[in-house]
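[Q] Does anyone have a clean structure-token version of this?
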Amino acid sequence: MTMLRQPASVLVVIYNENKEFLLLQRKDDSDFWQSVTGGIDHGELSLDTAYRELKEETGIDAKALNLKIKQHNTQNQYEIRPQWRHRYIKGALINTEYVFSICIPNSTPVTLCDEEHTDFIWLSKEDAAKKVWSQSNRKEILAIS
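[A] Here you go.
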């Protein structure tokens, strides 16, 4: 049985040396493009979640590649989409999202988690900001300098 999620997650904005941003297409909503996201497991630190989700969703093992995920010390809050509320603990309506980013070498391969995503694309900052579904994801892409 799957544990219900706490209303806390990470957002990991991934970009490369050319300042191209990696977006993933959700399997459960083909119009929903996003950076890496994922729920924080009970007792898990948000930074540990960021490393875990990056590896699970893209195959990029930042620790093995000696790459550092940057903690932005930023939190966003947003309403949980009604069609996703069944995944959360009872009564959860607002999610708190902890923001991270990572710059990876251009040659880093991406291997999607087939259970969550169907495609990925590298886009310029402006195009990535236009394509993502979430306002908080858009804001954090644009905040990368």
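[Q] Thanks! Anything notable?
[A] The first strand starts at residue 8 and ends at 16.
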